Description:
Layout: E1 6-9, E2 14-17, H1 18-28, H2 43-52, E3 68-69
The structure holds iron/sulfur cluster.
The site of iron/sulfur cluster has 12 residues, from strand 1, helix 1 and helix 2.
Amino acid sequence: MYEEKRYLCPLVGRDMWDGECYDVQMVHYGFIKPEILDFVLDQSKADKICEACPFNQLKQPASGMGKMITA
Ligand code: SF4
């Protein structure tokens, strides 16, 4: 059974569920409209931070390098 993961997102500086992170990446890469997010995504900031983030599910599986918050 899938278990949601929650972590401290370095892009927005608050806790984020992996599902929301996935949505951020969908917006970041232009697959869905930005209105789905409850904040305005800074694309140039996401280019730098999300691209290097260990939690970026479109880049690599979470490696545990960042700060994981247990649910
Ligand atoms: S990839 Fe990392 S920095 Fe980008 S939204 Fe997800 S947790 Fe935040």
